[in-house]
Design brief:
elongated; 5-stranded mixed β-sheet; alpha+beta; 10 helices; Glutaredoxin
Length: 239
């Protein structure tokens, strides 16, 4: 899915968040809303062993269906076999595929702070189909609010993160800019120790990770058989 796809910005998306906030960079709400205290995620939140020799970096969007599929189908195996076992460090970064919904969802995901960040990502990906479907009718707000409230984020806090926290927006744009500098053009894009993984399926990623974990094993070749001495008689069978 290509970044900032212009086909993914219907007016209905904006209307769908009336219960939370309208997308935009406003600093003062026309309805008199007053921002409340929030402590959002502004930097990377690594998973796994912080001192691991292998770092897996994913650029993704919460509005990208391919990202959802990777998160639900491949990431659980990656987590069980490499993250939870301390073999790698894993980092998720935002790479919005549009200027509205992707950024709004990323803002909500980051709103609860580092402790709930990956659980928020998981639930927003799980609800993605319902969110995208409801957004076309202007009815996605309650779904997103429900996910946020499940993790202790009130609607006032979500609205503050969406519309009134410039540092949060800046962190999302910074993540996207860094991805663009690395050559990210679609989502999900995965790097293993800064090397682009052309295939982000679990089996392909596991193969790349294993080579990074065991570089010697990846380069070893079988020892060559000794050359026969010239003129020496061949060994008889069984000798």
């Amino acid at each position: 899915m290509t970044a900032f796809a212009s086909t993914f910005r219907p007016v209905a998306i904006l209307a769908s968040f009336a219960l939370l906030a309208a997308c935009g960079g406003e600093t003062k709400a026309a309805d008199g809303f007053k921002p409340v205290p929030v402590n959002p995620v502004l930097t990377d939140v690594p998973l796994g062993n912080p001192n691991a020799s292998v770092t897996v970096l994913e650029y993704a969007s919460l509005a990208c269906s391919h990202c959802r599929d990777f998160w639900k189908q491949d990431f659980p195996r990656l987590k069980a076999n490499y993250i939870d076992t301390g073999k790698i460090k894993y980092i998720y970064r935002d790479y919005p595929i549009d200027a509205d919904l992707s950024i709004l969802l990323a803002s909500v995901a980051r709103c609860g702070g580092a402790d709930s960040y990956y659980a928020m990502l998981d639930d927003l990906f799980a609800a993605q189909y319902d969110i995208l479907t409801a957004a076309q009718k202007g009815e996605a707000g309650p779904i997103i609010a429900g996910v946020a409230e499940k993790h202790g984020i009130s609607r006032d806090q979500a609205r503050t993160c969406i519309d009134h926290t410039k540092t949060l927006k800046d962190s999302i744009y910074k993540s996207a800019d860094e991805g663009g500098t690395r050559g990210v053009r679609s989502t999900p894009t995965v790097f293993v120790n800064d090397e682009l993984a052309a295939d982000h399926s679990y089996d392909a990623l596991a193969a790349v990770i294993e080579k990074k974990l065991n570089p010697g094993a990846a380069t070893e070749t079988p020892a060559a058989a000794p050359k026969p001495v010239e003129g020496a008689p061949a060994s008889a069978p069984g000798q």
